[in-house]
Amino acid sequence: MKESKYTTIDEALKKDLTQVYLRGWVFRQRASNKFVFIVLRDESDIIQCVISKSKNAELFEKAEKLTIESSIKISGELKEDERAPTGFEVSVSDMEIIQIAEPFPITEHQSPELLYDNRHLWLRSRKLNAVLKIRHTVVGAIHEFFRSLGYYEFDAPIFQPSQSEGGSTLFEVKYFEDIMYLSQTWQLYAEAGIFSLGKIYNMGPTFRAEKSKTSRHLAEFWMAEMEAAWMTLDELTEVAKDEIRFIVQEVLKHNKKELEILERDIKLLEHYAKAEYPTIKYAEALDILNNKYQMDVPWGKDLRTMEEAKIAEHFKVPVVVTHYPTEIMGFYKPPSEDNPKEALCFDMLAPEGYCEIIGGSERSLLVDDMKKRLKAEGENPEIYDWYFALRRYGSVPHSGYGLGVERVVQWMCGLDNIKDAIAFPRTMLRKAP
What we know:
Blueprint: H1 9-14, E1 19-31, E2 35-41, E3 46-52, H2 57-64, E4 71-80, E5 88-99, H3 112-117, H4 119-122, H5 126-148, E6 152-153, E7 159-160, E8 172-175, E9 178-182, H6 187-197, E10 199-207, E11 220-229, H7 233-254, H8 256-261, H9 266-274, E12 279-281, H10 282-292, H11 305-315, E13 319-322, E14 345-350, E15 355-362, H12 367-376, H13 385-389, E16 398-404, H14 405-413
Parallel strand pairs: 3-5, 6-10, 12-13
Antiparallel strand pairs: 1-2, 1-4, 2-3, 4-5, 7-9, 8-9, 10-11, 11-16, 13-14, 14-15, 15-16
Helix pairs in contact: 5-7, 5-14, 7-9
């Protein structure tokens, strides 16, 4: 069989071919006295293939020996069959065995930990195949969104000399004869970039040494961040809303088959793609939590996951919460002139219990205030002299935010655990494979 004749399963079905040449892996195999049924999988889909003993006894004997994940090439006649898993079946006329796989270590009803231990093999599952395709769309949509608005892609170092999101979550690494830290965010360097490029964005790995075992935290994850000169908080939150709607629209456009495999509620996603997302202040969020849901959350307390989930459930669409208490925010989030107890910042909370997916703020221009807050956190402000210099040479108002790629993928796919939103998860307890 000529290599040029091969198509993916998806291409074969779309092109309405009768004679097909396919290659892939054995997803399922069962045999009777008369037939061997193989469910073949490739990167695009699965399809049932049947080998008849009466038509080709030699081929039947070869097919009987196939194991799960054996790699093969087949040719045959494609026809509709509503009893088959995807509605089509191939009557196999020829088959080449590339490799007969050893007994596959993953069978039905395995524990989550065994699946994580065998992640290098579990990537082949239909579920993770679907998730990774949706992730591909999400990442592509982010690039397309910002580039279409005139943002420039801007890279920042992963080795950084200081913290930006709290010293307790820093990963310390040996850097020649010195010590550096893995990046917690691209932001501080992005603030330098906007004075050259105006509007910038980035997609990069991010590291947080959070001692957390929840279904929403990773030690290594990907963050899509943006920063723009002259932008205020009100403008910033609208960019975030537009970005999320665009991502949802792109997933619906390109990944309906994958959403169906994951049994995701497509009509709900269609609603998110068109809906208006409300903006409320932290104080309004407390009012809803305390008066409607009797949760007794005091002013000054950061919202926990259960409280974020209740706010998003209340609105049933992504909701932006602004003006969190200044005292619990990062040193670079400025106090509001109208009420210094409130910071010019926001989080976007996703519905269905997925909670925070974006966080951002205007950036403080108050050097003395930032130095004071860094000292209160036990940090040495002198390390940030280069950062403060940005305020001394043509300072302008500017803002930015970071979007957690895995959190958005988890929400898009309806996943129970964020570890399934990335190919190889890294957590407090998992560093391999």
